[in-house]
Amino acid sequence: MANATQFLRGVPASPGVCFGKAFLLDSEEITIPRRHITAEQIPQEIARFEEALIHTRQEILEIQHRIARELDVEHAEIFNAHLLVLEDRALIEEVITKLKSEQLTVECVFFDVLKRYIRAFSRVEDEYLRERTSDVEDVGKRILRQLLGQRRRSLADLHEPVVIVAYDLSPSDTATMHRDHVMGFATDIGGRTSHTAIMAKSLEIPAVVGLEDVTQRVKSDDWLIIDGTTGVVIVNPDEATRKTYDELRTRLQAIDQTLLQLKDLPAQTPDGRRIQLAANIELPDEVPSVLAHGGEGIGLYRTEFFYLNRQDLPTEDEQFEAYRRVAQAVAPHPVVIRTLDLGGDKFTSSLKMPHEMNPFLGWRAVRFCLARPDIFKIQLRAILRASTYGAVKMMYPLISGVEEVRQANQLLEEAKDELRTHGIPYNAEMEVGAMIEVPSAALTCDIIAREVRFFSIGTNDLIQYALAVDRVNEKIAYLYEPAHPAVLRLVKTVVDAARAANIWVGMCGEMAGEPAMALLLLGLGLDEFSTSPVNIPKIKQVVRSVAMPQAQALAQQALALRTAKEVEDFAAAQLRRLVKELP
Ligand code: PEP
Ligand code: MG
To answer: Which helix (H) or strand (E) holds 298?
Structure first.
């Protein structure tokens, strides 16, 4: 191999090893070469600029017509602001004047003017004008792509198996990509629980995220090894390294095969405590994988994927069909449908949500749903209708106090009334639970427990809020510590409150799928573990290896430790001692 081998280290996001050619997904950043022109070339550059404006206008009009046809005129009108940018005389004249005085290519000049405009817009006091910044930016990029003759490469265009290298992958990238052709992911940003990591795990694709500059270091068609288990990416590996990783891949596959033999055995400790071992899914097509890995139902069905990557909102019937399909496919095991958790790192183009400084602390999840009962009740009715087709349960995300549970339950009652009025059946006894993922909910869960039938601890968010560490920021990924004593104490508080109130408690955050942590969580008294299907056999192996008194003693010892590092080392050592056949 001609190019030099490089070793890059990032955040391990989805386990496994793969080897393949890089496919570099262009980031939205556009780089413009700085090139001078002669005075004779000026008219030609002006003509190129005018042509780019005309083509961009056509492009926007086409989008606008399609949206008006497929959605509604109101959404299409959003693009009027984009068209206005194209007609901005001041901007056009400034470009032409500068082109003449500076004698640089029109893309260079336009880029400079655009940057100045964006800076000016983002500083103005008037909120309406400030919000136009993104319109100017969006149109500006379209014009630049026209000038440069570029089109953003799309994951829907893949024709052969590749390893995706990107700044990040948006939910719409992962939803539209050609899945059979994606062997692995490597991204600049993101942490263990970012959307890309979760998606990679559910697709069983090895992934490393948070590499910071992998898009700068890798070129399309470089050869890459992705080791998603340890978080290493090797660019253009030499023969010896390739061979080592081939052997590792074979060994990991053999371990997976051995663990898969546990598929039909119960998730039960040697002294007879039965654990509910369920899976997290984003899409109904993932159910076969859950069953193939021995999952006993779905502990977290993330429904927001329904709302992403489309221009309209999903209807009640459409949602009902999907929920019913999942419920029937996993029956007699349960499915816990989580109500809409938009915001944070998941946005949809069909709802114009405001741009926020701190989206994870903002208008997301149940907060959004309570403010938009029109949208929320469509989902509640769809879930209720599906509840007669299997063991359907439902939970609310991002509960921060008991009032939100009460308000959501009030809307649920209204949805039930509406169905009753129309003679549509539903299960009046459907279990309703709260996700515990905000510290204020964890600390008041004795109060919340009286209003719900179960808790599901969402550690992905609970950790970020308890430790004040943005879950998708690679710069502080080292501070994102599931084993932090504060996290263990919060989990213990929630489990103890559930026990006292006689309701069940599960965990659906990524922490539930880490074997060493699972050992401690078992001892803390968790009733249910819900994780990516790939992790189910490993967690089953943990549960089947350790008797409860032993697990409880380990949890007690862990609670007495002082740092995340001490807890991690302790749990890893106990795992090696007590549980066989784990990678
Ligand atoms: C969590 O926060 O732990 C969780 C499971 O929800 P999400 O990752 O979808 O925020
Ligand atoms: Mg969450």
So the answer is: strand 298-302
For residues 383 and 239, state if they share a domain: no
Sign of CA pseudo-dihedral 356, 360, 365, 367: negative
Residues near 327 by beta carbon (within 8 Å), at least 6 away in sequence = 335, 386, 387, 389, 390, 391, 392
> Mind telling me the catalytic residues?
195, 508
Mind listing the pLDDT tens digit for each residue in 540-574? 999 999 999 999 999 999 999 999 999 999 999 99
User: Pick from 255, 283, 310: which residue ends a domain?
Assistant: 255
- What 8-state DSSP symbol labels residue 304? G
CA of 457 to the centre of ligand 1 (A): 9
Residue nearest to atom 6 of ligand 1 (CA): 458
List Cα–Cα distances, 405 to 122, 137, 196, 419, in angstroms. Answer: 38, 40, 30, 21
Note whether 474 and 568 are same-domain residues: yes
Q: From the CB of 193, is ligand 1 less than 6 Å away?
A: yes
377-413 pLDDT tens trace: 999 999 999 999 999 999 999 999 999 999 999 999 9
Residue 173, in any domain of the structure: yes
Ligand 1 near 458 CB (within 6 A): yes
For Cα atoms 518, 522, 528, give the angle at the middle one, nearest 5 degrees: 90
Q: Which of 358, 440, 443 is nearest to 399 (CA)?
A: 440
User: Looking at the structure, do residues 114 and 193 belong to the same domain, yes or no?
Assistant: no
